[in-house]
Write a structure and sequence with these properties.
Length: 583
């Protein structure tokens, strides 16, 4: 698949902020709609590789677009847009006209939305709401943070189920306000995708989950809705599920977004597209032998019956926030369209771009013509930016003149003038336990170039070699210097700092990785100070708690091998009864 750089927009800090509008009567291509951190919604159509602005709408003032979803009265042709920010949801038509506004009653910010007819599902940090015609209908509170949300008919054929990817290593399937299935996983779930609606059947469905550490697992769910009763609450939960294949990643990069589609034109949606945290986009397809039906059986073969194989991989170098599939540049070729953390919109197409374009009289290739049109579009954007910079300079010069005229200077010497401003920057920081390495993986990414990172901790830490292509240089302060410095400090200051390390990032890099192993039994906070390589420099501090049992992780089931492992025992002997033993 060939790469095409389509757009460079404002940064996008939230995933799920890009969608493709359906094909219309007058256009056989699909339009791209993107929401950014400035609260703007952009819609573009591509004519022979040249982006054409369909509409731009300022939905939210000084607030980012946190999610973007498609909806509409027709379930086949979903041509209406719903965008969220904070506790607000706005509906936009395909022409950019606002037709709907709703404010959530929840105090948590909306991170996920989905619409079906008059119903809207919203997902926050812990709360999942269902609204019907703008009114509260159902509410479910998760036991841990919700990392992803998908709506599909997994267990019921007459109602929609909410599938939640949770931080406590569980996938929860909710119908209305009722929890109907609780599926344990090996690690916290970051992304999830369900079986496409066109392939939903009455025998079994499946969901594919991406967990911390890079694993992708398929879970088969039977459609016969077998139930079990819990002794604690008396509620009925579905338990008819089995684990299928698992795909591992050699780098251990978490899958942030996944998509099931038909890229190979096989007639079945059996191709899995994965976007990972480190910027890689991968395509997994079934083996050719799996698609061939030698026994002349009419039963379709899907992802739940065979393990897919990776056939394509490309590294974008930064976090992927949006992932869609459709026809954007050409009506005959499907494309994978991704949006990145810094605002890039990139396409991977199966179109032969190096071949001669049939409509070009000079014999140039399709890629050459598309690049020329994009360069022309970029020149127009540069001219617009120059105009904005000129206006801002005029505003600053006016402020300078106002200050100079109001001051009475005693000397004729010219003093330097500075204009103080407050600025913040977005950062994507993840800190999770890698069970195989027994260490915590710290990943830092910003939308501009990094200068350096300082890590301070009240817990003793050990730097762990990740054995990958990490180019970050780590400098650790010796422990004897920390002890001597702590003795010289006065009480009440930061005297309990037991670990200091500086991460030196290569010039121009936006990402940095770091692996540490704490000492169990100690607890405290780890502070990560991020400094940008900009003018002026900016810095922010991110805090992570280190708990006493920091290297312990939750297990849902114990094997016989786990039971046979040696354990610690405490025995009490003497003349006493159990009631005198205090906990």
């Amino acid at each position: 698949m060939a790469r095409c750089d389509l757009l460079q927009l404002n940064p996008m800090s939230y995933k799920g902020t890009m969608q493709l509008l359906p094909i219309s009567k007058n256009n056989s291509r699909q339009k791209i709609v993107v929401g950014d951190d400035t609260g703007m919604l952009h819609c573009y159509d591509f004519k022979r590789g040249e982006p054409v602005v369909v509409f731009e709408a300022q939905l939210f003032e000084n607030q980012p677009v946190t999610c973007l979803a498609l909806g509409g009265d027709n379930p086949i042709k979903r041509d209406k847009l719903y965008a969220s920010s904070d506790q607000k949801i706005v509906g936009i038509s395909k022409k950019g006209k606002q037709f709907f506004t709703m404010s959530s009653s929840s105090t948590e910010a909306i991170r996920f939305i989905h619409t079906e007819d008059t119903q809207i599902w919203t997902g926050c940090d812990y709360i999942c709401n269902v609204y019907d015609n703008g009114r509260d209908k159902h509410l479910f509170m998760s036991m841990d943070t919700i990392n992803d949300l998908v709506i599909s008919q997994v267990l019921h054929d007459n109602s929609y189920d909410t599938v939640l990817a949770c931080q406590d290593s569980c996938v929860r399937i909710v119908n209305g306000s009722d929890l109907e299935m609780d599926i344990p996983t090996v690690a916290p779930v970051r992304s999830i995708v369900c079986k496409p609606r066109s392939s939903l059947g009455k025998e079994s469905n499946y969901i594919i989950v991406g967990t911390d550490g890079g694993e992708i697992t398929l879970i088969k769910i039977a459609f016969n809705k077998a139930k079990r009763s819990t002794e604690d609450t008396g509620n009925a939960l579905f338990d008819d599920y089995t684990y299928g294949w698992t795909l591992e990643d050699s780098r251990g990069s978490t899958a942030t977004s996944m998509l099931v589609c038909d890229l190979t034109h096989s007639g079945e949606e059996n191709d899995l597209v994965v976007a990972r945290e480190d910027g890689r986009v991968e395509v997994y397809v079934l083996e050719p032998s799996a698609n061939n039906n030698d026994n002349n059986d009419s039963t379709p073969i899907g992802l739940d019956s065979n393990t897919p194989k990776k056939v394509f991989s490309s590294d974008l170098g930064e976090r992927v926030q949006g992932l869609v599939c459709g026809r954007v540049n050409h009506d005959m070729y499907r494309e994978i369209v991704v949006s990145t953390y810094s605002g890039k919109v990139v396409s991977f197409t199966s179109e032969p771009l190096n071949q001669r374009d049939e409509k070009d009289a000079y014999g140039r290739s399709t890629a050459t013509l598309q690049n020329e049109r994009r360069i022309k579009h970029l020149e127009g954007e540069i001219e617009t930016m120059r105009t904005k910079v000129t206006k801002e300079r005029a505003t600053v010069d006016k402020v300078k003149e106002t200050k100079k005229s109001g001051e009475k200077r005693k000397s004729s010497q010219k003093e330097p003038f500075t204009l103080a401003t407050a600025a913040d920057f977005s950062s994507a920081v993840s800190f999770f336990l890698d069970h195989d390495k027994g260490a915590y993986m710290l990943s830092v990414e910003i939308q501009s170039a990094l200068d350096f990172i300082v890590v301070r901790s009240a817990v003793e830490l050990e730097v762990v070699d990740t054995e990958d292509d990490n180019t970050t240089l780590v400098s650790v302060t010796p422990s004897n210097l920390l002890e001597s410095d702590a003795n010289e400090r006065s009480p009440g200051t930061d005297a309990d700092c037991k670990f200091i390390a500086a991460l030196h990032v290569p010039k121009g890099e936006k990402r940095a990785y770091f692996a540490v192993r704490p000492i169990e039994g100690q607890h405290g906070d780890m502070l990560v100070t991020i400094v940008t390589n900009t003018s002026p420099k900016l810095a922010k501090v991110v805090k992570f708690p280190m708990k006493r049992l920091s290297l312990h992780s939750r297990v849902h089931n114990m094997t016989q091998e786990d039971y046979n492992r040696p354990r610690c025992q405490v025995k009490f002997t003497g003349t006493f009864c159990i009631c005198v033993i205090s906990p």
